[in-house]
Specification:
The protein is mainly alpha-helical and 67 residues long. The chain has helices at residues 22-30, 41-44, 57-63; strands spanning 36-37, 54-55.
Length: 67
């Protein structure tokens, strides 16, 4: 089954080359994400970020066939 949770991030993150991507990492931390999937290279260079893998869409699909 698939579930979704609404997350209002509160953790302040300032680590990305592009500050707009910090919100995504904050959301991942506060939402306890299993993985961040992005084609954006700015957050991808931080892989893994505080234990959360940051994968390209291709890498995610290679690791999770049928997803």
């Amino acid at each position: 089954s698939t579930t979704a949770n609404l997350v209002h991030p509160t953790t302040a993150i300032k680590v990305c080359r592009d500050p707009d991507d910090d919100h995504v990492l904050s959301l991942a931390l506060d939402g306890r994400a299993d993985v961040v999937v992005t084609g954006d290279q700015d957050p991808a260079v931080l892989h893994p970020f505080r234990g959360i893998p940051i994968l390209s869409p291709r890498a995610f699909l290679d690791r999770h066939p049928g997803a």
